[in-house]
Amino acid sequence: MQRRRPRRLAGWAGGLLVRLVVLAMLLPAATAAAQPAPAAPGPLPQRELVIATRNTPPFSMKAASGEWEGISIDLWRRVAQGLGLRFRFVEYDTVQAVIEAVARGEVDAAAAALTVTAARRQIMDFTQPFFATGLGVAVARDNGATAWLPVFRTFLSLSFLQGVLILLGIVLSVGILIWLFERRQNPPYGGRALQGFIAGAWWSAVAMTQAGAAQDGPRSLPGRILAVIWMVASVVTIAVFIAGITSTLTTQRLQGLVRNAADLRTLRVGAVEGSSTIDFLKSQRIAHDGVNRLDLGLRALREGRVDAFVYDRPLMGWTIQQDFPELDLLPITLDSQNYAIALPPENSIRVALDVALLETLRSEWWQQTRFRYLGRDTAP
What we know:
This is Transporter substrate-binding domain-containing protein. By secondary structure, the protein is α/β, with parallel strands linked by helices.
């Protein structure tokens, strides 16, 4: 009986080992089968596709020949030709009209300057983004009183007030020490404490600013030593203070009226209705006047009916360069935006378009296309 037990135990252990080996071999296959398979490209339509677009240079615009061109248009042509798709362009007047046409399925895609937003994503589909940028701010070129508004704002800022208070504190501290050293030997500093303190503070201020010959200078040895130290130190103090103020004022003039979104709350702001700019301004609680087209908004800015205009940076930069040279595009970027090709909610071509887009965006052709329309200053 004792010999049979080890044999039974050995047989049971061997069977268990075999089961474990088999389970280990089958587990990866079972795990792979449980994972969802990646979406496969659907069948590409054989009919002619209808592609919505609108005039938004440099992404989509009509050439003199009547043919559409631009960054988005050229990219769509490249991708569609690679997939063997037939298509034709249909022009819409406003971005809202393009969005509604895509959302209702009246068109098969939209190639223009459409940014991906949460609100739009709820009613339509998008391909992989092909261009990243942000909102730009345009203002009228500095002139008259408007050019000095940033300077006045600097003088009213908390940092400027702090600098003045620190400088005033140093002057008063030196004045108190001069009064304490001179009150028993120098008549102007004697008498009542307030009178002596005022005399010391006045001498300290005159010596620092070198506004004139400092009268009733110190006579005691400690007072004269302090006076020499203060007159030398005050030259450095004033130089540093003036240099700091000059640098700040120069920076404010260069930056202009707007440095960030908060500065827009004090200005009359314009924006294109139906664009993603409106969503951003509302989220920042910035009051704004809406216009139907970018050129109308820039015209209002030029005529002084608004103080700043906010819109997609590359679109506004192109339009200002072409038609509004008297306006300036500030060197700041608000928010962040991704441009993509818009598709109806239920479509069968997004996966195929994404694959073709990802291959195209890594090509030398895409780098040359961006450079041709935007030059070297392009977003990644």
